[in-house]
Amino acid sequence: MLTDWIRKYTTYLLPKHCDLCGLSIKLPYQHPILCHVCLANFAPQPRCLCCGLVMPVSEQRCGRCLLSSPLWSRLYCVGDYQAPLASYVHRLKYSGQFWHAKTLALLLTPYITSKPELITFVPLHWQRFLYRGYNQSQHLAWEISKHINVSCCGLFRKVRATVHQQGLSKKQRERNIRQSFALCKTINHKHVAIVDDVLTTGSTVEPLCQLLKQSGVKTIDIYCICRTSHPNDNLSGVNLI
Description:
By secondary structure, the protein is an alpha/beta fold. 31% of the residues lie in helices and 13% in strands. The protein is built from eight helices and six strands, in the order H-H-E-H-H-E-H-H-E-H-E-E-H-E. The protein has helices at 2-13, 63-67, 85-94, 100-108, 126-132, 136-148, 170-177, 205-214, and strands at residues 74-76, 118-121, 156-158, 181-183, 191-199, 219-227. The strands form two sheets. Strands 1-6-5-2 form a four-stranded parallel beta sheet, sandwiched between helices. Strands 3-4 form a two-stranded antiparallel sheet. Helix 8 (205-214) links the parallel strand 5 and strand 6 (219-227). The radius of gyration is 18 Å and the shape is globular.
């Protein structure tokens, strides 16, 4: 615990050297631990602004979203799940380096163009929370809320333990996550953002969106670090979200 505390704070207090290339970060700082050259590795790609999948040019809605729209209105992400971005997500999620929530949040927040009334996050089941010690999506939500000055609150609880979604098809993911979430608070907001670390098929956030819609929320945004298409997605169909 002491080692984690030391690493968390020295990462941002020591002399400014890029975490990727090791060179000095010159003023003005665009990011506290990444130099302006390495930040180019995180340059945004043209995407569908609704589902977040990569496109030749940015569009409000791709053809699939026009035919089968997701329950949310807008998706904000940093990039796909690939180096160097994937390494920071992995360190945040699996290596106990929860301080990288700030690293990743600072990469995402410049792209948020419309502030929600409230930010919430994908919950963990209590068993997984005890095993990991923290919820990476909650840490991301805290950091994002601080940088865009919006309140953050946990609205959901996970009522049923599920297997890991990684490696499952979209239909398997939907069955795995079915009836796994419940609302734990009353909602009096019309515009809410849900934070998750990685979004692949959208199967995890869809039931959360349904709960929000049933409670009267009109606009839902998704904030994720990585938006990655699933290899088992049907590229000829419309259900890529």
